[in-house]
């Protein structure tokens, strides 16, 4: 599998390219482009949320928690005004950081096995959908921006999974390593019930997800421009 530095550098490069492309085609402004690059980069680290004993991963998720809680606070501060906005924002940042670092990440690292279900395409799709729903219902962002953040998070995660599969090939010996197929997967025969529950949860989140029409029309427009 690829190491932490490789995941971070390739994920960041890919996310910046995607964010710059959206800005070039006038899908969004510069601020949104920067946020997309950050979210995509964080997504490229997300599949290793199930990695418990790696120091680089622990450091990476510390940075992940700091950046994500800061983004949540910035989005909150831009959306609402109040007499105690600074105090409210600081409290929100602290709560978000503690929940992410010592709640979400700590729980996942203890309850999951590396390259298990978390290291799969549907699980990463679930994270992207949850981000879209959280941005739309929680932070009151537009459906377009909410779906955009969820999509770039998912794309960043796909970069991670594809890198792991690429590194599972021994190029010189032209053979597959034992880790081949354990990263970029949709299902495991040994876990039919778990994956059935995962896909059921995925369908439920899709049902309550924000409208995707604006993002879909924008992507269709860009595709037509590239073809013509």
Outline of the structure:
33% of the residues are buried.
Description:
By secondary structure, the protein is mainly α. The protein folds into two domains: 161 residues, no CATH class; 56 residues, no CATH class. Helices cover 71% and strands 2% of the residues. It contains eight helices and two strands. A two-stranded antiparallel ribbon has the order 1-2. Strand 1 and strand 2 form a beta hairpin. Helix 1 runs antiparallel to helix 2 and helix 5 runs antiparallel to helix 6. InterPro entries: YdjM-like (IPR007404).
Overall domain count: 2
Q: Strand pairing plus helix content: what structural class?
A: mainly alpha
Strand % is: under 5%
Count of extended strands: 2
Main β-sheet description: 2 strands, antiparallel
**Helix fraction?**
over 70%
Low-pLDDT segments: 170-176
End-to-end CA span: 40 Å
| Overall pLDDT score | 76
What is the overall silhouette? globular
What's the helix-strand series?
HHHHHHEEHH
């Amino acid at each position: 599998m690829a190491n932490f530095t490789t995941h971070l550098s390739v994920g960041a490069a890919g996310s910046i390219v995607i964010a710059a492309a959206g800005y070039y085609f006038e899908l969004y402004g510069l601020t949104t482009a920067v946020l997309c690059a950050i979210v995509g980069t964080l997504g490229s680290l997300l599949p290793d949320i199930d990695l418990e004993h790696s120091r680089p991963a622990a450091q990476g998720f510390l940075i992940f928690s700091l950046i994500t809680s800061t983004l949540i606070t910035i989005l909150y501060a831009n959306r609402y005004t109040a007499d105690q906005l600074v105090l409210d924002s600081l409290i929100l940042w602290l709560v978000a950081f503690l929940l992410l670092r010592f709640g979400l990440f700590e729980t996942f690292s203890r309850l999951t096995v590396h390259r298990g279900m978390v290291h799969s395409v549907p699980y990463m799709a679930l994270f992207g959908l949850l981000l879209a729903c959280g941005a739309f219902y929680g932070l009151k962002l537009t459906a377009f921006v909410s779906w955009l953040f969820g999509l770039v998070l998912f794309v960043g995660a796909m970069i991670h999974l594809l890198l792991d599969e690429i590194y599972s090939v021994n190029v010189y010996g032209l053979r597959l390593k034992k880790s081949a197929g354990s990263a970029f997967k949709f299902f495991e025969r040994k876990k039919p019930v778990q994956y059935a529950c995962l896909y059921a949860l995925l369908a439920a989140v899709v049902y309550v997800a924000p409208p995707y029409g604006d993002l879909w029309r924008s992507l269709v427009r860009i595709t037509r421009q590239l073809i013509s």
